[in-house]
Amino acid sequence: MTSAKQRYDLVLLPGDGIGEEVAAQARALVDAVASAIDVELTIDEIPCGGRFYAEHGSRDWPEDAEERCARADGILLAAVGWPSGKGGPITMSDGRMAGYSPVIGNRVKLDLYANVRPVKLLPGVRHGISGEFAQVWKPENVDMVIVRENTEGLYAGMSGTLRAGGVGSVATDTRVITRRASERVIRKAFEICMDRNGAPKDGKKRVTAIVKHNVLDGCRLFMEVFAEVAAEFPEVETEAAIVDAFTQWIVTQPERYDVCVATNMFGDIVTDLASVLQGGMGMAVGCNTGDDHAMFEPIHGSAPPLAGKDEANPLAMLLATGECFKWLGKRFADERLSKAGRAVDDAVATIVAAGTPLTVDLVGPEQAAKLSVVATAVIDGVKAALR
Questions:
Q1: What pLDDT, on a 0 to 100 scale, did the predictor assign at position 1?
Q2: CATH code for residues 1-112+290-387
């Protein structure tokens, strides 16, 4: 931990589609917080993603973008990906989706080894399941954190396709699980658990390993390391959940879970499922954290059909910005930023509890407010709290 500063430098990566719209609201929130707490928060906005690649032809962000991200105190990423017109997103010459550099590239280059996903259902959120808005889960029963390894697994990049005669015949993706990466992400999960109040069902501090150790050697190694780290935290109850079974348990008994930890691909899948518990992608935040750097994002995509319509949900992006404030506040022992992060959470909770203004994904078309209206309500709430 280092000392509080008077100036913090942020990078903003708007990306594509609705990413640009929610990024603009994140910028407005940052400016409002800076003014309210008398701290200089600079923003270096870097274009990136599919449309950038389509315009420039060789890169999905500027040549110096990697260095600019490395210098930043924190990074805000909106969303990347743009349709190619050929039935999928724009891809680069190496076959990767245009937008890989700011997303996966930053995770690897900046060693953002833990993807931390808070999953909390706010009072007032209704779920659009089967097209019907209803209160499916009790808010007090959904309050967990899922920690996903963020740098290896099936996303390690050890893959290839054999194209005999120019026709794809064999493709491989090698899953890489290492002791080092497993140990540090598991330890992060236990440390997060120690700072929480336990599972909603029974108040017990509990870490659940999501694995397929009945089949996969990588998961057996992951569980071996899990047991070693768990021995250092005798206050915490531990368990293993086989990933396919976990997908039903998280929906039918979310109150059992406190902190969960998973390898990269399993974590990617179950966190998107978990977002349903909190009202959908428009409410879900991803915190890509390492020891020295962090990047915060909404987990929704760029949603090209919604782009430019002022209809997308900005709450996940605003909550992600709040998580950035809290991370900076903790890292630099700066209570001003920690307070700002809490103010964002409270402002979002207030409008959700009131039921207005909210976007179409949360209330349906008849009561829906515009993205800009919702964002303004949150930012006004934050400013009032910080006066």
A1: 56
A2: 3.40.718.10
